[in-house]
Amino acid sequence: MAGIDFSLSNGNWAPEIVLPDAAPDGSLITIGSSAVWGSSITNGAEAMPVGQGDLFAFVREEGGWTYITDPESLDCKGSECALPSNLRRIKFLLSNGNWAQDIVLPGAAAEGASITIQSSAGWSSTISNGASDVAISQGDTFQFVRSGAAWVSPVSKVEKTLLQFGCTDGSASCSLPTMSSPVTKVAVGNSNWSSTVRLPATARPGDVVVIRNDASNSVGVVAGDATLETLATGSVGRYFRDGDGGWTSAYPVKVLLVYSSQAADAAGGASEEELRLARLLDFTNTALENSAANFYLVAAETIQYDLAATTLAAAYEEGIGQLKNGASDLALYRATYQADMVVYEGALGTSDGCGRAFTSPAYASDYMYPEWIQDSKESMLAVISLHAWCDDFVMPHEVGHLAGLMHEGTANTYPARIYAKGASNVGDLMGKRGAGVEVIPYFSNPRLYTSTGLRMGEPGLVDSVRAMNENAPTISNFYP
Question: Rg of the chain over CA atoms, in angstroms?
Answer without folding.
Answer: 26
